Protein 1
Amino acid sequence: MAPISKECDFLVIGGGSGGLACARRASGQWGAKTIAVESNRLGGTCVNVGCVPKKVTWNAAAIAETLHEAAAYGFNIKETGPFDFKTFKHKRDDYVKRLNGIYERNLEKDHVEYLHGRAHLLNKNEVEVVLHNGSKEIIRAKKILLATGGHPNIPNTPGAELGITSDGFFDLETLPKRVALVGAGYIAVEMAGMFHHLGSETHLFIRHETFLRTFDPVIQETIIKEYERQGLHIHRNSSQSKIEKKDDKWMTMHYTDKNSPNGSTLDIDCLLWAIGRSPEVEDLGLDKAGVNQDQKGHIIADDYQNTNIENIYSLGDVCGKIELTPVAIAAGRQLANRLFGGPEFKNAKLDYTNIPSVVFAHPEVGSIGMTEQEARDTFGDENVKIYKTDFTAMYYAMMPPEAKAPTAYKVICTGEEEKVVGLHILGSGSAEMLQGFGVAVKMGARKRDFDSCVAIHPTSAEELVTLK
């Protein structure tokens, strides 16, 4: 074995949002000697192949949607050419590269040593890092954080390799003419909406009757109807038997669905698998350090991010708890506070309850707290009261009935105090709206607190403080 080449107080394996937030807090604020290791680009999934380029693409799709709707307001807009996807793609890439540079400069500013390489645990205190130039270093660390994130899954369907995943979505140089997406989670729903509004014929294959099945029924039922109204092709109760290459650009999907139980085919020039993600642990060496994993391979960590091995911690997608970037960032900062911030932070940890989340669909979806069924299971039917409304936002007042998108809100309350334990919203502006209402729910707001706030008129959000 090579001799120890570096020693540190804190070694962070994984340069995604959670790992970097933890490393910077540990070093920049608390002075711990910290090394961060990342084998790919700094920023992890979110910055490179997730939230950031996704939201840029969603913005483009939203602009396309607005251009289409502008005629209802009297605008006569004539496009002189098709959407220049290639130019858009390269500008988006440039933006991500700028962020990569900002992340690296931030590490320097906070005195975190950055190693570009692949880390492998040798034991509970030592790690081998294979650097990008092929050389190796052995690092001994007093404490180690495992924040390696995850990667998309590909099924074992014959020909599945002809498709791409959400990672490959951001490598596309041209917009597909006809795309099939397989999956029912937020990634599939978001990307289906973006493909559709940017001009691709879009087919979404789901295994059951609805998608976003972990969300409240008001979300599931409303969004699937809206996607069908917009013209997306939803294939319910579907499965894929094989994918065959047709020529250099096209392939044929063999499938069954609700309308074709005996089987059918679809010729497509892009197939995107969005069937879930797995933890990035394959060569991490968890067995050598004795770190426990669950049945899906996720690292088991408690609410304080402790693994079963003393001085080894884990957070973010690799733990499979709540796979959202801000969750990993918040957990990372709290962990750094607890490990290096002194006695006043000895119990610091992230509160994993009432975490807001948003789906950048068309329209947007926002959710915080319990679904209606979760509330009824927890508190009993007699202790749950539901307030809900659905309406057409004023934005659509100038449009014909067939062009109007829905807005739907639900507030779930419990007990005599009518404490708000769940809030679910769908409609334009829901993402920005939820952040403020999320604060209220996190503070333990009651229905009467919502009622006591004077409405802002005319807005969609005012419906949430005027519910009867």
Protein 2
Amino acid sequence: MTSKITLARMRKLISTMLKFAHPTTHLSVPTCATIHIRSVATTATSTSTSPKPAGDISSVFPSLSGTASPPLPPRFADLKRRLIRGHESRVQDSWCRLLIALQQQRQEITALGSAIVPEINFWDLSDVSQRTSFRDGLHKRGVAVIRGVVPENEALDWKELLRRYIRTNPSTRGFPPTNPAVYELYWSPSQILARAHPNILRVQKFLMSHWRAIPSSSSTKNNDNNNVAPLISTSHPLAYADRLRIRQPGDSSFALGPHIDGGSVERWEEHGYGFGGVYDHIFHGEWESYDPWEATSRLPVKSDLYNGAGACSMYRMFQGWLAMSEMRAGEGHLMVCPMVKEAMAYLLLRPFFTPKRDTTAAPAAYLEPENWTLEHPMTSALQGAVPGNGQELSPAMQPHLDLENTMVHVPRVRPGDYVAWHCDTIHAVDSIHTGTSDSSVLYIPACPLTVANADYLARQRETFAE
């Protein structure tokens, strides 16, 4: 008989784990240290959540499901007015500065292509000089490749084990329904082995150490205690049950374009990312002061206000996957927009601005800062954001990002390489897999230990036991 685990027991397990843990600081920069971490287990409270409707990855993105997206209700126009009230002139000025910064970023990305993505070998994680160079690139680009995390033959064995598992369980669902590329599998033996692999855990800790934590009162709006240490540990990565991909050559169904996970409208909503004031600097006309790597403000965030099918409510510092095949550009590979700070600032400010003249026949003039002004009256539009879905982007909706040129492929990977990207990074996959062999990955994000994540872990365990 399978026994259900209670939240109280989960707290005890976490507390026991932390008792014998010895967290370390990986870099000589402020990181999310373990501060008062044992109280995570004792202060966590059960959160009441409604069961999510069944779905697959197409349930998260209207572009995959073909579902029409109705206009947002008028309350979003009111929300937009509140977000920048009293800061209108500063927001206008910051928009002009941002467009200039984006132009400079576009030039760098176009010149470097895939080489702009930082890389490090797994065996170099203890090399200070290698780490320092890698850190600088990661902070600027928001994406990275870690080579040789798992031996190549072991990654290939996991793929073969998955194939046998899928053959043995022909009712396994996926997307598309016929000839799936992304499988609704979460607890197969291969996935369990990969998540628990010591090298994967070491890489997750290493990556999460690049985030910073500051006292709560300095970063969040809803805490009056001036001396509250952030309840977060990047030295204790938590397991998040995610999907897997085995995409065959010629597939064009899994054509997932530029998008960001972790909610959509929630990034503007006061009861979403607004709980921690994550993007306040941007809405106040100070996008340069926004720090994508500050973790404390994200602790109270509600990234799934609409209980969307397939949407994620866990705080994932990095999304990531482990390669189970060789992949290069055009072969069902990952594409990213490697300017995590500027791109997020633009995404959030774009709904507040409208062009004075529709000069799309002359793109350069259309994109000039002088051609854009604050909306008046303010509309409810949040381009690409649909409640209960992920955030989607396109060249038409976000023209200054120049996504056709700034979405670059991650460098070629081999089985056992790990690719990670910041939770705010715009990413996509090749619309057509033009290679000659499968494009296969295990999705394994990096999740810190927090109160909310501990609650999620308890619910995840209970669901598994059922």
Protein 3
Amino acid sequence: MGFTTGFVSGLTLTSTALYISLLAHQRNRVRQAQLLHQQSLLLNSIIDPSIVPVEDAPRFVVQRADWTETWKDRWNAEIEGAVRWVQGIKWEEVREAAEGRMIAWKDGERKA
């Protein structure tokens, strides 16, 4: 790796780490400001409800899943069941049983 390549890659790595850390810090500050504003509104509405009206909470509508989601859920349940079944198998016992059958088959071939 040459000087220029090393310098550019180091600069890129450093500036990326700096950008990500500054972005995380900014988002934390924005979220904290939102929380402080919400708490201030709540406290002010407790003291004098006529000054600052409390906004209504957003209403959530429960939607029924369509048929594709239902089939996906069924498929995922089947896959989970198959994985649990495979994970529950004691593979040493399966190997020993297969070896026993192979030896018995091999001995039967020699006798014939």
Protein 4
Amino acid sequence: MSSSSMRSFEYLESLPGTVFNRLYKQPSTALAIFRRMLPQLAKSFVMAMLYMPRPLPVADLDTWVRPGSRREQNTAIDLLERLQILKRTAEPNKPRSYVLTNPFAASLRQALTGGGNHRSFGVPSRTHAEGQVTKAQLDDFARRQWEGVLGYMVGSTGVGLNDEGAKLSLAVKHLLKYGRLVEVRGRSVDITQDGFAFVLQEVNAQVWTILILYLENAEELGMDRVDVLSFLFMLGSLELGQGYSKANLTDTQLQMLLDLGDFGIIYQNTPDSDSYYPTRLATTLTSDAAALRSATAGFDTALRPSNNDDKGFVVVETNYRIYAYTSSPLQIAILSLFTRLSTRYPNMVSGKMTRESVRRAISMGITGDQIIDFLYTHAHPQMRKNANFLPPTVVDQIRLWQIEGERMKSTVGFLFKDFLSAAEYEGPCQHAGDIGVLKWKNDAKRMFFVTRHEHVAAYLKSQKEKRREGG
């Protein structure tokens, strides 16, 4: 699962069942979640059960998977249950079974076969030909607005960003502060550790991070979060360059058009126009096809698929000097967060990483591993000809500069202990590892530590029920 899928999945998992019930009434939502958030094995289970007239016994499902793939099977089943797509049934004198939940199953069938008057995939505008916006114009608008957001986050470092960039609204700045991507101290805006991690993500993951923050803030704005979620999933199914009518949108979704326009996700000729256009940032929401690594290189790939300029631009020498072959003000601003820049040419900047410049970045919350990841991701093709293209002395020194002020890292979670036997301990411990929540274990003392306890507890409960049935 990609990082953007994981972020949206974690938000969905926290929602109550009544919200899922309303969400899954929209075929576009059911299809988007099926396409984006499910691994291939989970998709296979859903498609195999979609038209089954009766529940599928657990023993029958087990025969579909090879014995050596039980871990993948458990992960897929756990994911489907957490998204409330699959549930277990236990009727008297009948074997335990699985069944797809409704309305998810009904909506997915409708999305795959068509029909109905739900209009959850948008209504094309009949008047969009008048003053029609081209794909190139939509791409330029999305690029300008999104780079304006990133420029605001890193542009306070003294490197001048393009004056032609987007002017951010107060709502956008509030959302970035609310998400702790930036810290505002008077007139100073500093990027945080989370903000730098955000900048390093592919563009699709960045967009989903912003949208999750928007969702978390929706109720404070008096918005219905089901309307918000349904609209976001619908955007991923729309066609780039096609205008869509506003006539069937709710009041919440009409307000969203204005807010999403600030981020370059939606374009409108004027706020009062009868139609809106999704940009490429919107139409790729439910697709992992574009794995974009940065704002500049990423947009060159996503917004101009025929362009082959998505190459590294950073050269790092063993003496800590850096040469960056770029004219992007945004990339230069990111470099200046941890580099003392000394020279700037039309197509290149140079500087040096020093203890002071790296420690300054660390004091802002940026980690040494994040700096190394940035240099690794954007390494120049000439450097990539070597096996270890980042000089080991530079990598080690960045980490040493970080640990000068750090000796311990804490992780919030839950400790499971006091198991009566090794067999009782090994099952839930292995299950925690399978679903990716296990952080530490001690087999000798029969103890393990997890970041989330709900599904481990559910596993223990299901094992207890199995023993009761077998006894």
